[in-house]
Amino acid sequence: MVDNIKRSLLVSIWFVFLTFPLMVVKVNTLKNIVEWRWINMLWVAIGAFVLSIVWRWAMERRQLKNKKAEQGEEESVLPGFGQRLLEDPKIFKPVLIALALVTLVFPLVVDIYQTNIMVLALIFVVLGLGLNVTVGLAGLLDLGYVAFFAVGAYTYGVLNSFFGFGFWISLPLGGLMGALFGIVLGFPILRLRGDYLAIVTLGFGSIAKIVIENWEEVFNGAKGIANIPRPGFFGAEMSIHTATTYTYYLMILMVLFAIFITNRLKDSRIGRAWMALREDEIACVAMGVDMARTKLGAYAFGAFWAGLAGVIFASRNTYINPNSFTFMESALVLSIVVMGGMGSIIGVIVAALVLILMPEYLRAFAEYRMLMFGAVMVLMMIFRPEGLIANVRRKYAGRKVVTEDANARG
Amino acid sequence: MRKSVIKKLVMVALLGLIMPATGFAADTIKIGVAGPHTGDLAPYGIPTKEAAEMVAAQVNAAGGVLGMQVEVLPMDDQCKPEIATNAATKLVSEGVDVVIGHVCSGATKAAMGIYKEAKIIAVSPSATNPPLTQSGDYPNFYRTIAPDDDQGKLASDFATDKLGAKRIAILHDKGDYGKGFADFAKQFIEAGGKAEVVLFEGVTPGAMDYSAVVQKVRREKADAVIFGGYHPEASKLVSQMHKKRMKIPFIGPDGVKGNGFLEIAGKDAEGVYATGPMDVSSYAVNQKAKADYISKYGKEPGTFFDQGYAAMQVILNAIEVAGGTEYAALEKALKNSYVDTAVGKIKFDAKGDAEGVGFSVFQVQDGKFVELK
Amino acid sequence: MEYFLELSSSGLVRGSIYALIALGYTMVYGIIQLINFAHGEIYMIGAFVALIVSGVLTIYGFSGVSILILAGLIAVIYAAAYGYTLEKIAYRPLRNAPRLSPLISAIGMSLFLQNYVLLAQTPDFLRFPALIPDFEFMEPIAHIMGSPELVILVTSAVSRVGLTVLIKYTRIGKAMRATQQDMTMARLVGVNVDNVISMTFIIGSVLAAIGGVLVGSYIGQINFYIGFMAGVKAFTAAVLGGIGNIPGAVLGALVLGLTEAYAAGYISSAYEDVFAFGVLVLILILRPSGLLGKAVKQKV
């Protein structure tokens, strides 16, 4: 304990030193004087001391847990809550029913702001599920996923402003355009691996934004495309409130659809091929999997969802400009996938809700919100590096499961 | 362990649902201030927020408006349309009476529909995109800054008539503000037929340096540069032009005209032209606003401070004249009664543009912007 | 021809700065296979500390070269301290985590550091004093290359030589190379891998801070956001040259800088980044592991 305090004191001194020029000194160029904000130093010292003690305690706990996991490996293989949720009907059913109820009545009991941010969060759920296919299943790191999102949004924006296309025609077109771009961009980079792939996709993301910014004849450049209609319902006139509620239910349907498809796909032929590709490309190709087709499939499929989400995004905001399609958005979606626990569908949903809603609820902290957002990202990774709800690999134990079940019944 | 985490998450989510449902007190006037308060565009949003908070504090200290205290609700939109709609619905849900903002034209367009339906007036300190007022789509939109086309015309006339430039290079920062200004400048120069636009090009804000573009201006033998954008890029360009030993006139819009530019560009600022609202620094209101700011923050106010200050002033005045925050009465007050503000004595025309914000050309002389008559 | 020279000079200057930052990326990557997205923020913090120190010194009556040296020195020390702390907090606990987790941690750290500087100092752009004096002898060709540009080229080259010497001939350099080749093996023969990793972050941060100070002084302005774009470009440069490869990072940075300058000069500066990334894609299609990167034989 004494040792802990001693060490924390040292940490505190180190942080005082570290933050000294930025937190304490402020040069006032107007009056040519130096402001010494000593009070900040005190805060840093106290804050660093307290945090250091908490940190040490948390780290110890983490280590203890790791050790336990190492010693009793059987124990750690027990399926986590997320997995049990999916597999054990006893937990699965009531939770699902409760969740469905909450989801259904949600827009009716809260105000439009809550519904509105929930729609945005759901859009990112779909994005997360899409990227989850590319990164989580197929293991292709994509830092420019936002490009496909932009393709979807601008497909609707451009088709609407030039040809008057409605939402419902544009929705599938947006998805298809996304998939098409996924294939086109996927072609040249089939040979690349790992982080080379990451930076090239990052490049594609930036290129997409710059092209939108500069090609004014089509995309209206930085001025953006305004007056994009919200989703229609057989031509009914809707107030913003009802339109938002309607979009919300639409998004719920779409999320369910995305969950259904991606979940089914996991166990399909192509899904298995993706996972095999992720684990070992060479072995996978040796087994006769068509590498090009499988990879392009993963890109196209991931991009398809981004395209769909883009169309809804455009209709939700009624206005789009290049500002919404920066690297930060790509990073956000990737964070959703990683934080959720690569490949885990429930994890992605939870992480998307947390990461998109958190900055909104952090509005209470005004200017500190992005600071805290960054800190939370770091902390979440440190304390749950495998993600919020880790994806437990399904085991194919064959008959054993059946006998166990039979025993349980008997 | 896992279970407890989930439980906590659910609790947090539930708390989040309950929280915003509180607070609809009628004894305060709530004014939302929306703009980028974090991210790369924060320098253009924070000064307005500070201005609004300063005015509110002063008014409250003096007893408030109509006996009610003024409450400022800052709302970060990062200049992103999707966050702007979040911010707008949040402000509507919180029951604000008037909104100052948004700062970027794009974010403003995304948010205006929501205010329109909620019958809330928005006064922007900085959204200069002409269609915001001229299209008629946004009847509840007002601004204390002039639209891009006015300034573009002024800058191009000045370059061709006063400076006698024949070969003009137009640069912009690809943003809605800078590009808008540059587009109009180009259009007016080409229509005027007195000079030729030899270069029309976007630069990337945040790029490490602009020396390649500066070399290009030199190669085109331009005899004047018109730049659309904000002061950081402007000062980067100016200082690199000087480093490359180029001495041709440089004309910027009102995003350049401000102390921020003088401070950053330093000696390189000398001789630079900028269009901007008529010299208001002699106005008592403006002087007081600046002095207050300097005594509070110990630095010169940033971009759009004057406009943000003015927006707050016209709103409070309108509320006082209208005797409340009812939409029609406010609208009438905004359009009919002149107010002494930090950008001059203004009222709004039928479309929502400020009348009385005259524009003129300034030049930096001895480290100060001097109005050229 | 003169125009070509002018563009080449600005491309080389840009490339030299990219190189200083890219080295940090590539060294860290070489050892722990981490894309350190917060590296650009170290560069920004270096520039900020230098600005603050030089401001304080100016007010207290120092002048000229003494400011340059003191401000540069303190900036370098602080950047090293930040780099060291960054690794300890955000990456060390994640050393055995899944491969992408440290990347997310890095993105979070990058956001945190940006907003920390925004809140602690100011969101506005600040004037960075021109610390580099104008040399008389450069005046005739100042429009092609001025003295600040010359200083940048020379300093960057000297730093690179210093780094090469450090890595080739010193004990820590050898330990770094050993760790890069095989971390487990290095640990087995008695290399303190933790120290080596810390040292890598420190060296990378020092180089980034040198870049930050040079850029600040050359461009004359900084704010909390300058690290982001610089970081992305430097990362691109590192990959272009073959990530993990030190001469590769320098070559990649110069190629990138020149590409940007020629693209801006001959085509359009609005599309400068498109060409930068375009070259990257092209080179990686032809050489999937970068210009100087060795094609790693996949063991089956």
Question: How would you sum up this structure, described in words?
Answer:
Chain A has helices spanning 2-24, 38-71, 73-77, 81-87, 89-109, 112-137, 146-163, 167-186, 194-214, 216-219, 240-266, 269-279, 281-286, 291-317, 327-340, 345-361, 369-383, 399-409, and strands at residues 25-28, 33-36. With 410 residues, chain A is mostly helical. Chain A folds into two domains: 2-69, no CATH class; 110-383, no CATH class. Chain B is of the alpha/beta class and 373 residues long. Chain B has two domains: 11-146 and 284-355, Response regulator (Rossmann fold, 3-Layer(aba) Sandwich), CATH 3.40.50.2300; 149-253, Response regulator (Rossmann fold), CATH 3.40.50.2300. In chain B, helix 3 packs parallel to helix 4 (105-117), helix 6 packs across helix 7 (176-192) and helix 9 runs parallel beside helix 10 (259-265). Residues 9-25 of chain B have low confidence and may be disordered. Chain C has a two-stranded antiparallel ribbon with strand order 1-2. The model of chain C has no long low-confidence stretch (mean pLDDT 89). Chain C is 73% helix and 1% strand. Chain C has one domain (8-133, 142-225). The chains are: A mainly alpha (410), B alpha/beta (373), C mainly alpha (300). Chains in contact: A-B, A-C, B-C. At the A-C interface, helix 1, strand 1, helix 2, helix 9 and helix 13 of A face helix 2, helix 3, helix 4, strand 1 and helix 9 of C.
Considering the chains and any ligands shown, give keywords for the structure.
heterotrimer; B: 373 residues; alpha/beta; Rossmann fold; seven-stranded mixed β-sheet; C: 300 residues; mainly alpha; two-stranded antiparallel sheet; 11 helices; 1% strand; globular
Query: The biggest beta sheet of chain A, please?
Result: 2 strands, antiparallel
**Shape, principal axes of CA atoms of chain C:** globular
Beta-strand content bin of chain A: under 5%
Give unreliable regions of chain A as ranges.
74-78, 399-410
Strand order of the largest sheet of chain C: 1-2
Task: Report how far apart the termini of chain C are.
Answer: 53 Å
Number of domains of chain C: 1
What is the count of structural domains of chain A? 2
- The rounded distance between the terminal residues' Cα atoms of chain A is 54 Å
The side-by-side strand order for the widest beta sheet of chain A comes to: 1-2
Number of helices of chain C: 11
- H/E element order of chain C: HHHHEHHHHEHHH
Tell me the major beta sheet of chain C: 2 strands, antiparallel
| Rg calc of chain A | 25 Å
**Structure classification of chain C:** mainly alpha
**Strand-residue proportion of chain C:** under 5%
